[in-house]
Amino acid sequence: MRYKNPLLRRIKEMKARVDKDICIGCGLCESTCPEVFSIEDDGLAAAIEGELTAEVCDDAEAAKDGCPVSAIEIEA
């Protein structure tokens, strides 16, 4: 698999987190990477629990980069 971000080539697992104090519930993250993000009953985004696999890292990074309020963090 080819990654857009060269750093991701070396990362096997990552964790995503959504700051619900900042999230506006626009749904962009869910539409960009539904394997990792979803809109919950409160109307705000949430990330899956646990570690991300290499297969979804590019999409998760794209969701982070596209978040209009920078509510997403991805930890290596």
UniProtKB/TrEMBL annotation:
Key words of the record: Electron transport, Iron, Iron-sulfur, Metal-binding, Transport
UniProt cross-references to SUPFAM superfamilies, sorted A to Z: 4Fe-4S ferredoxins
Keyword rRNA processing: no
Official protein name in the record: Ferredoxin
Lineage: Bacteria, Bacillati, Bacillota, Clostridia, Lachnospirales
Pfam short name (any one): Fer4_13
Ranges for domain 4Fe-4S ferredoxin-type: 14-42
Molecular functions per Gene Ontology: electron transfer activity; iron ion binding; iron-sulfur cluster binding
Role played: Ferredoxins are iron-sulfur proteins that transfer electrons in a wide variety of metabolic reactions.
